[in-house]
Design brief:
By secondary structure, the protein is mainly α. About 65% of the residues lie in helices and about 10% in strands.
C-alpha cells in the first residue's frame, strides 16, 4: 500500500534550503527515500505559502527556485 506523506513548512524549508548543512542533507535524503519507495508526497498550500513568504521576505531567490522545482 502506498503511504501519503504531507510535508509541513519545517521539512519543506529544509529541503529547499540551498545551503548544505547536516540537517538539510538528512532531510533531502529522507524525502528521496520516500520518493524512491513510491510514497505519495503532498505539499499543502499553506506550507508552500509559509515557506515562500519567508523566502520572498529574505530575498532568497535560490530557495524560491528550489521550492518551485520541488512543487513541479
Amino acid at each position: 500500500m502506498t503511504r501519503v506523506v504531507l510535508l509541513d513548512a519545517g521539512p519543506l524549508g529544509l529541503v529547499t534550503n540551498p545551503l548544505r548543512s547536516p540537517a538539510t542533507i538528512e532531510c533531502a535524503r529522507w524525502l528521496q527515500s520516500l520518493l524512491s519507495a513510491r510514497d505519495r508526497v503532498i505539499v499543502p498550500e499553506i506550507a508552500d505559502y509559509e515557506v515562500r513568504r519567508e523566502l520572498l521576505r529574505a530575498n532568497k531567490t535560490q530557495g524560491i527556485l528550489r521550492l518551485d522545482a520541488l512543487i513541479a
